[in-house]
Amino acid sequence: MTLHVAIVGAGPAGIYAGNILAHQYPDVEIDLFDSLPAPYGLIRYGVAPDHPRIKGIVNSLHEMLNDGKIRFYGNVTFGTDLTLSDIKQHYHAVIFATGAIKDAKLDIPGIDLPGSYGAADFVAWYDGHPDFPRTWPLEAKQVAVLGNGNVALDVARVLAKHADDMLSTDIPANVYEGLKASPVTDVHVFGRRGPANIKFTPIELRELGEVEDVDIVLYDEDFPEGWFDEDAEGVTNQHKVMARILESWRDRELTGASRRLHLHFYSTPVAILGDEKVTGIKFERTGTGTFFEQDVQAVYRAIGYFGSELPEVPFDEKLGVISNHGGRVSDGVYATGWIKRGPVGLIGHTKSDATETIENLVADIPKLAEPASPGTVLETLNARGVQYTDWQGWLKLNAYEQSLGEKENRERIKVVDRDEQVKISRG
Ligand code: NAP
User: Fold this and answer.
1) Buried b (16+ CB within 10 A) or exposed e, 247-262
2) Which of 55, 150, 346 gets mutated to test ligand 1 (max ligand atoms within 8 A of its CB)?
3) What gap in Å lies between CA 76 and CA 393, rounded to an integer?
4) Contact assessment for residue 18 and residue 64, using Cβ atoms and an 8 Å cutoff
5) How far is the CA of 95 from the centre of ligand 1 (A)?
6) How far apart are CA 198 and CA 80, in angstroms?
7) Which of 170, 197, 369, 393 is within CB 3.0–4.6 Å of 193 for a Cys-Cys bond?
8) Average model confidence (pLDDT) for the chain?
9) How far apart are CA 157 and CA 372, in angstroms?
């Protein structure tokens, strides 16, 4: 029996799931949908532009889509252009791999003041996401970044880095101009726990100390005697490497760089200060009942992402995930990636996630309801006038972006406008 499967979300989680399914059950037709005109989700719109090594994962995802087993359709919004009942009409099963793109909430006074931002929005801006504004108010000289995960590092690094050092990347022209005009001098990263409890990873942490003309500043009060116990429960080699990196920075002389990146610990945010806009932030020295303030004109919270609810799909409001058991949601409905298990883990981890979901889907095949009209989804999309893009369209847009880059000796310059992307893809 030819199995017809839809996947919603063309980021790494969706593509890995499609690829694993195609290998486990070769008699399958897979259609991969995304609301954006271009594929690759988080890699195109979440990974920092100055992380070419991670962006390079695109090459293997490209191979997976290029072998013809999985058909990509972009610019198709689930819930409006294509509903769950449409999907049930055309497919035996659907896998949701829509990720987590919103910022987790931080419920403290002042969080809605102008100058207080979510990291996810800033990331979408610097990665040229078509649905986000093209300008970003980079007016602050002193900035706070809340959180001790890799997103906080991305945001802090992009804010602190000189724009010209980003020119080798695929940043759009408006992002370069915005960063170039930034008056920032000090970026303060605040973790609520101690330096032994950071959620960074070693490569990303080390990279921070290599940014041109930026000094890393650490504070002795955050490193009490014996602050790192390598025999403590849960300490990994990664923690040990990061402890050495932090210690080496404590020993380093400041160079008088024009920008500074401060790492503060034991700082729990309690209020963002200011009347009409952000003028500072107040912290509790974690667990001590003593408070301190830091003057800043902007605050970025990088305290984790949160999934978004999809029409007609059961959602766990507390965890921000589709309610599921091992990726099973309901008859013929599955989930994988961050929308299945929450926004933790590196891109490669979505592979094991996908393996579990696909094993369960394949085990369910005998029970899956036969769709009324398999293989005819394009008729539905055409009847609705949906301007979908496809794989050939992506190859055109990809070549166009690369040709824009070539003129300026860069690998690629992203097209940011949705209509323009669709026009180039469909042209
Ligand atoms: P994360 O690693 O879970 O870090 C979230 C941080 O926010 C933690 O330090 C957490 O502190 C803190 N936090 C949570 N709630 C808070 C609150 N109310 N007040 C203050 N701090 C709070 O999440 P992420 O940085 O969003 O990253 C998500 C995943 O993507 C991670 O697996 C990450 O490694 C990965 N990623 C990787 C890269 C890369 O370059 N390799 C880049 C970006 C993201 P506690 O630890 O105390 O809870």
Assistant:
1) eebeeeeeeeeebbbb
2) 150
3) 14
4) yes
5) 26
6) 41
7) 197
8) 96
9) 52
CA of 427 to the centre of ligand 1 (A): 41
Three-state DSSP state, 145:
strand
Q: pLDDT tens across 185-214, in order?
A: 999 999 999 999 999 999 999 999 999 999
- Which atom in ligand 1 lies closest to the alpha carbon of residue 199? 2
Residue whose CA lies nearest to ligand 1 atom number 28? 344
Residue among 129, 116, 117, 120 at smallest CA distance from 101: 120
In the prediction, which pLDDT does 9 show? 98
Count CA atoms within 13 Å of residue 2 on its CB side.
10
Burial of 410 (0-12, 13-18, 19+ CB in 10 A): middle
How many other CB atoms are found less than 10 A from the CB of residue 27?
8
Distances (CA, A) of 110 to 1, 271, 273, 280, 324: 58, 6, 6, 10, 35
3-state helix, strand, coil in the chain (%, to 5): 35, 20, 45
From the CA of 255, how far away is ligand 1's center (Å)?
29
Whether the Cβ atoms of residue 8 and residue 94 lie closer than 8 Å to each other = yes
**Cβ–Cβ under 8 Å, residues 397 and 424:** yes
Instruction: Record the pTM.
Output: 0.96
Q: How far is the CA of 399 from the centre of ligand 1 (A)?
A: 35
- DSSP assignment string, 272-320: EE-SSS--EEEEEETTTTEEEEEE-SEEEE-S-EE----TTS-EETTTT
Please spell the DSSP secondary structure of 18-47, one letter per residue: HHHHHHH-SSEEEEEE-SSSSS-HHHHHTS
CB atoms within 10 A of CB 107: 5
How far is the CA of 318 from the CAs of 9, 221, 239, in angstroms?
22, 36, 29
Asked if residue 348 has its Cβ within 6 Å of ligand 1, the reply is: no
Q: Which of 305, 308, 355, 348 is nearest to 334 (CA)?
A: 355
CA-based angle 153:138:245, to the nearest 5?
A: 20
Burial of residue 164 (number of CB atoms within 10 Å: 0-12, 13-18, 19+): exposed
Is the Cβ atom of 150 under 6 angstroms away from ligand 1? yes
Look at residues 347, 346, 341 and name the one whose alpha carbon lies nearest to residue 329.
341
Give percent of the chain with pLDDT exceeding 90.
93
